Structure formats: C-alpha cells, structure tokens
Amino acid sequence: MPTLHWIGKEKVINHHMDVPFKVLEHAYGFDNGKQTDKETNSGNKIIHGDNLEALKSLLPEYEGKIKCIYIDPPYNTGNEGWVYNDNVTDPKMKKWLGQVVGKESEDLSRHDKWLCMMYPRLKLLHKLLAEDGAIFISIDDIEVNHLRLVLDEIFGSNSFISQLIWKSRKSEDARAKTGVSNDHEYVICYGKTSQIKFLGVDKDLTKFSNPDNDFRGAWRSADITGLATKEQRPNLHYDLLDIETGLIYPPPNKGWRFEVKTMDKKISEGRVIFPNNPEGRPCQKMFLGEMASTTKTLSSVITEFNTGDGSKEIDSLLGSGIFDFPKPSIFIQFLIEQVSNSKDIILDSFAGSGTTAHAVLNLNKQDGGNRKFILIEMEDYAETITAERVKRVINGYGDKEGTGGSFDYFELGQPLFIEAGVLNELVGIEKIRAYIWYSETHTGTMSELGFTGFRDLQDKENVVTTNPANSDTDSDTFLGKHNDTAYYFNYESDRVNTLNHAFLAMMKTKAEQYVIYADNCLLTKEYMTKHHLIFKKIPRDITRF
C-alpha cells in the first residue's frame, strides 16, 4: 500500500499519545429552553477548546462507542477572510507546530502543515469510532488525495466505503479564474471495519398505480428486454404472441429477459402488458407489494442539497452574514441516517456553526429517536454561534417549531497529569478519583463519576460507589465495588501513601478481589496473593488514555 510522507510526519505520527488528558469543566446546561447551572445529563455536549485535547478528554468514556463521526475540517484554501478560518497558517497552528515539530516546522509547506494538524486528530477519531461505525469527512480538491492516503494508513484501505461527490454549488461561478467553475466537493467515508453498509435511499414510488384495479395492488411497468445476443443465449430469442390481438413481437437485439416457459407463466398470470400497436414493445407489471425492499443503493453523486440551502438556513437562525458556506443540516442528516440508528452517538470535532447538532435534533424529532451529539469547537464563537444556534433549534426560530432537547456546555480544564505523570491536584480529588474508577471499570459516565460533580450511584450496572464525604461504611479511600472487586485509592498529597496492614485494617468492604492504589507497598507477594490483593503504584500504574 502506498504511504504518504511529509516534513514533520515522524513528529506527529504518535503525537496523540502525548496529548495531555484534560478534564472537562461544566459551564452550564441548557434544558427545557432555559439555561441552568446544573448539568442536564442529556448526553449531548458542546465542548469549547482545542479539538485535539478535547478528543483526548473523550477517550475514557467514549472510546469505541461513537457510531457516526462527521467532520468538516479546514480545506486549506488559503482564504483567511471567513468566520471559519480555512487556513492552517494561523497563529494557533504555527505555535502548535513549533512546539510539536520544532524548528523543522519553519520549512513546512502549506500541505505539510495541514497534514501535521490532521494526522493526530484522525488517530484519536479512529480510537473513538465504534467497530460498526463510520466517519464522514468533507473536503475539496486541494487536500482530497492527501487525505485518502492518510485515511488508508490509519483506518486501512479495506475500510474505505466511498468518495461521495457533492454538487455543492447551485450555479456556475462566473469568477473562476481558470474558466472552470468548481461546483463540487467530496465526502470521504471510511468504516472502522470493512463490513459497513449504507442504508440506501427510498425508491421513487410515485410511478406505482393501479389503473386496471389489479387484485395484486399498485404496479408500474418494467422492461423485459434481455442482456444477451442470440449467439450467447439462443433460448431467450423467440417471437412473443399476444393471443388477444394475434400480433407477434419479434425479440429485441438482446432477446427477452425470461425463457419461454417463464414468459408463458407470466402471461397466464396477467403480468405481461402488450402494446396497442405492432411497433411497441411488451413489458411486465412490477407490483409494489412484491418488492423485496422500498430502498435502493445510494448514488455516489449527491445533487439534492447545496451551500445556498445552508446559507439560507443559518441566515434565518442567526442573521445574514454570520457564517459563510455552512453545510445544510438536511445534508448532514442524510449522511447520519446512512450509518446510524435512533440511539447512537454522533460526533463532530470541527463543529463550526453547529450544523451536526441541528441535524441530530431534527432526526430525533422526526422519528422519536434518542441520538446524542457531541460537538467540539476551538474558536471563540463556540458560545456565540455554535451553542447559540443549538439553543434556537431547540426552542424554535422564525416559523420553525422547536425540536426540544437539552445539552451541556463545557470548557477544557486542567490536565490530569503534570511533570512526567505527577497528578495535578488543581483538578480536584473528586475528578482524580472518578478518572481512576472509570479507567478500571468503564461504568457509569464521567460526569456522573466526578467530572462535573461527584455523586452517589447505587446498584447501577452492578456498580456500588460511595461518596467519600458522607461514607460511614468504609475508608474515605474506597472508590467502589464492581463485579466483586473493591477499589481503593490511597492518596494524599502531603504524605507518602503506603499499602500496609494498618491500611488493610481500615478497609470494610467484602469482595473477592481488591485493587489498591498507593505510593508503595510493604506487604509480601505471598500475602498479596493469598488475600487477592492487587497493588497499583501511583502514578506509574494509572491508565493513560
């Protein structure tokens, strides 16, 4: 398989592993049309912050769980006049490249910079995608070839599904300097595996009717011309007789579709329609009720939507000129429907104006589904445009009825680890405990377990946790019990935390096995094995996502 090389690749190919894990700080919730300080726990999230770091923050809870990812990354056009800066030479990118790639970044071409930006983000998106999930990426001619090669490398060439062509312009661009109007974009689609199949689109059923009151119901005429010459299939080349008129119809150049016996049966059942004149050609009735499916395969060329539709939509939502060239929500909705179901999670890490959330909310309203959306936007307009749009979609705007729904707005907070793995106490002990618990059990949600306020969970998914502040049944180092394993986090910053017999005496919970985090352990291996104790050293043995 051909691979793509560029300046700086060796510095970013594993950079996703070095991205710091930062906690999400809850800013506010939006529930029942009103803003609140409390978290809605709706599962819908809008995150303001660098999308590389934000994607890393999602790993503990969402790794392998996102069914559909849609992203509309910078196309690298060099146009810096848009609200959405479609250029990777901006100061934020230059600073990041300098830190990650080093002095070599000064020699990077425009394409090198774009690839350095995209590669680690695509690696994290791959980790987040479910085994039966798919990713859609909008792009144009400038970077499409580079993107395909990188996706082949990360997702595997066998996971390629399609390179859809979207006719994004309604009319030609008279300003085109080359004399060629670039009227299309692409949507590249890969699956986590090669088994992904699109849902397809509805067949046109408007041609079905029942003018002769056939007892089998509505039908339409269908061709019965064959596909083989007389030399290839002589049994399909024969004269067809209309016994009512006596007219004889010779076989077409490629014969008939059915052999004589099958054709006679169709005629006897009234399935063959003869024309009223000898120049016509017989056809057959195709009954709606006998169709195996009312859907058909999706064309790789999409012409139903254009950027003009998106502009009208965003103008009616937020005002004229607020956001340039947004995708219409019905287009994103169309893509989401192809690969997801009514309870799936949809992620957009280049959220822009929030079109993906709009599409998810519309879908939920249409079919009563409970899809969840996660949006990430690094620009300052994450609150004034992205979140504001979602609020108006929920509440209703213009003559559009609101979809209903809720979401929570987050800011990226402090990193959980500092200085080669040292725990950062500024994030708060509750969030550190929650991280440890989730890394061990993958139960509950990160918000429920402390990333927006620690709370009790009783007997949920075989989980029993206690709030240390109110616990009178066990040591305040007790995290919880799951699948008959009790978890303890023995940590205080101002002392050395030791697993010894004195600590064991404070443990009250009965379990088949015990996992205990501490700075060191004074118990013998034999004692640990006999009593089913597992020691994990802080911070060395804390799982890194």
How would you describe what is shown here?
The two termini are 29 Å apart. The strands form eight sheets. This protein has an eleven-stranded mixed sheet. The longest helix has 19 residues, at 110-128. The protein has three domains: 9-201 and 297-415, 3-Layer(aba) Sandwich (Rossmann fold), CATH 3.40.50.150; 219-292, no CATH class; 417-537, no CATH class. Helices cover 28% and strands 24% of the residues. The model is unreliable at 452-472 (pLDDT under 50). The chain is α/β, with parallel strands linked by helices and 545 residues long.
CATH superfamily of the largest domain: Vaccinia Virus protein VP39
- What's the architecture of the largest domain in CATH terms? 3-Layer(aba) Sandwich
Count of discrete structural domains: 3
What is the makeup of the main sheet?
A: 11 strands, mixed
Strand order, main sheet: write it out. Answer: 2-1-20-3-17-16-4-5-7-6-15
Q: Would you count the extended β strands for me? A: 30
Instruction: Please give the oligomerization state of what you see.
Output: single chain
Spans of 5+ residues with little confidence (pLDDT < 50)?
452-472
Number of helices: 15
| Structural classification | alpha/beta
Query: What gyration radius follows from the Cα positions, in whole Å?
Result: 30 Å
